[in-house]
Amino acid sequence: MPKGRGHEVIVSDDGIWQIRLPPTEAGGPYEIRAWSTVSGTNLDIKINSVLFGDVWLCSGQSNMEFRVEWMMGGLEELKNASSFSNVRFMEVMQASSYAPILEPIIRSGWAQPNEATLKEFSGACWYFGRRLQKTLRIPVGLIGSYYGGSALKTWVDREGISNCLKQIAKHRPRIYDDAVLWNGMVKPLTQLDIKGVLWYQGEADSYEDHNSFLCLMPAMIDSWRKHFRQPSMPFGIVQLACPPEQKHPGWSSVRWHQTADIGVVPNDILRNVFMAVALDLCDPKSPYGSIHPRYKIEIGERLLLGALSLAYHIPTPFQGPSPAYSSRVDNKVIVTFRDGPIVLRGNSASAFEVCCGYSNASRSDSSWNDCSQWDAVSVSNPTAMALTVDVSKCEGRSVRFVRYAWKASPCTYLKCLIYGANTSLPTGPFVIPVES
Fold this sequence. Notes:
alpha/beta; 11 helices
């Protein structure tokens, strides 16, 4: 901001004033002064060490809230934190409200990182931010606004809830607490100009309301973009890692719904959205419960790749391999991938499953949701862009669908089956029809 630039504003009858500063070259530090005269009384406020740069909002539930001091590598991050003076962060107080509030309730104001100030801040958000700042060499601001155990519907505005109301009412009649965290922890921030959002949430919905997640996820993204005045605001999400128990069908459903039931993002429903796949970041020995894996550095790094590509338009591979198509030849199905080449790392014994059918079944209205039985199958003959699935278990029947990594906890740490050979990024769970 050029030295001495000033702006004048009239205070409204309810005592509120606002100045929106023009776009300013990244850098600093600057001093901002605000002064007023009311009834002959002069008031002069100075804000020191102000930086201009990009601000990211980090939100969701307890895995986004998970502290730097708790994560793997957290002590080293705290030890070196003070060397990242061009990263600033703040936290919003956890607060629910049945009506939108005007000003955010601040838990901790804007701070420079050091061992004391940073330890309770979000680990995933911090690592993303400090890596972003180091990569772009511009100041980065991080806002933490998260609430452990919160369901998705509490973060969606009333209009978004209304648009999904029929689906929500069908699966969960009680809707009295909708939008309460949107009202209390996000709406007060919407006067800010932010670069994008990082979102880590869905665990709560997997236990109670995973069917409504399919409508609520894009509804939330659309509503936040509208209120932040950015129709294409970059939105990064973390696909769920691992639950406390292996048999948990809601977990896999939420993972799928996080992609709008398409398997990858961005797509035609979730535009300008990037995702950190986390199904290979299980942490069964986490002292904070296996639902809270400590591998937040990996989360932050994977989110960074998507942000560089979609938010900053820096060509960066940010997706693991995903299926392009599948075809059956005798008792084998060949799955061909995009974003390869692929490499196989983990145990292939139960990574793939097949749904068998009959040749006279109608394919026009066929849905994998109708599959009552899935059988584990083996894989073989991997090439740079494809692998072969043995479907001899179908015993002459048709092969309707093949799915991958559909277990709640499909693999151990960094040992899922399929990764990008050049990126080390995992393939997310998918289900695809099989062409004869």
